[in-house]
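Late entry, zinc ion complex.
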Amino acid sequence: MAAVGAARDAATATGGSAAPFALRHLHLSLRVGFAAAGAGRLRGAARLELRCVRSGSREVVLDAHPALSVLGARLLPPGGAGEREGEGEGQELRFESRPFASYGTALHLALPEEPRPGELLVVRIDYETGEGPGMSWLDSSQTAQKEKPFLYTSGFPVLNRSFFPGFHTPAMKSTYSAQLQVPEGFTAVMSATTWEKQKDNTFVFKMEHPIPSYLIALAVGDIVSAEVGPRSRVWAEPCLIEAAKKEYDGVIEEFLAVGEKLFGPYVWGRYDVLFMPPSFPFGGMENPCITFVTPCLLAGDRSLVDVIIHEISHSWFGNLVTNATWGEFWLNEGFTMYAQRRISTEVYGSAYTCLEAATGRALLRQHMDTTGEEHPLNKLRVVIEPGVNPDDTYNETPYEKGFCFVSYLAHLVGDQGKFDAFLQAYVEQFKFQSITADDALGFFLEYFPDLKQQGVESRPGLEFDRWLNTPGWPPFLPDLSPGQQLMKPADELAELWAADGLNMEEIEAVDISAWKTYQMVYFLDRILQKSPLPEGNVERLSAMYPKVSKAQNAELRLRWCQIVLRNNHEPEYSKVKAFLHSQGKQKYTLPLYRAMWGGSEAARALAMETFSATAPQLHINVRNYVKKILGLEGSD
Ligand SMILES: [Zn+2]
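Prediction complete; structure with ligand written out below:
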């Protein structure tokens, strides 16, 4: 389809897929140096192999960042760009860094003459970088092992601008390779299909499939690995590796196999998992070949292994078929939520999956209650105006409303097997490409001509156009009633705990020992909704269920902390503090700071005290969001 990827991405200086150049390959050649404290440095070069696709431009415009210093730029002779090109090879290019947005700059390289469409160009940019929002330099105290520093990059959504100059738009995909020299005693890993360790502690990586820049990821630290399946290893700091191996041995392969059965071949070769230091801001980041995840997933009892299903699902949705702009992020996340729940249904059954989906729906409800349903971010196609940081548009809508829309498409088809086959065809049709919602929906109607004939895209109230462009609650909700058998006892138990004068006999008669994570989460969400509970109830609940109040499972800890705060239960404030000290995941950290800041004087004091102690270990984005919540903006 000619329309594929033809979307202008306002978040990039390069113009997204409307750019005059396409990137064919990126090569990074860098030396990593750690500093005694604070940010270290990356020094080296980025080499970009470009193809001119439109005439009329005598400059190459790249996305970069003020933290990245360009030392020189050269146009290299075509074809001759080997690994060893000399410093002086090729032709020097004039370059200029111009302001672009709060989150980055535009790097202009002047070409000696206007290239013809189809012409290949190779440019090399010598640069160094250190501090920058995409680079997280942790000193040893911020790691789990507490012995050596650690570096990781996070490119999503536009943060790799401070890692290397390039086309930082999801509209453009390329293969990449990298050569990284790291200090002795450190290991480097990247999102690449092959890697090799050479002399001088140099690591060489190749990604043989085209990927968007936000999926290029690097981690350097004292990390080791252990096999957990025929194509999977876990990576972690030495002190975590045993726990990681125990928790994930054998389970990843099962999820991958179900994914392949449903959505087609897993093309990325290996599926490894890297457990990050505690400050990692995300639950997981689906970097191809090596997912980066929060150490919160090491619950000790395999109770959170299903979280990995989400990241595995991105292997098809997001990583193979990618949204061309961040304004249509639901193409990544809505399809992934649907795929995750398909795999989960196959592995755990529909009751448990519907229960987990009900938790997701509750998060969407919470989000829309906070922002108001009519908020412009509460539609699936968000208009990201020039200058707006795509990261600031991040919310629950593309995930859960996106899930509802994909579920609606499945409902229109009416047959799970046929819809699964469609998903497989969709992946096959668009793999290694970046697409728009129009591409996806056009293909859906083409694949099901009967539905097209019936005019399903314009059913009153359920128009595809309304799904995409109208904010608000989803006009269709998938049936989650199979989850009732697990929700009902949780609802009833929450009812008992919310009563004045507790009926302990009835409460004690409910056996929760076999409840799995999401049934407990569902129960705690109900308790939170009913909070504040009558005086004394939270104390007794805490004593009754150490499984909750002393949980190691992060999903349970989050809920328990929320309950503690909503009920002003000061004796357990220390748990809120301990949880926020132990990890820095955005989805856990922000709701707790919001709850503290909206609470009592004591809760506000707890917020300030905790933030001043943990700020240095938080990811910069999370730190800034917390500052906003606490009204500390601009007080650096
Ligand atoms: Zn995701």
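The radius of gyration is 25 Å. Will revisit in the morning.
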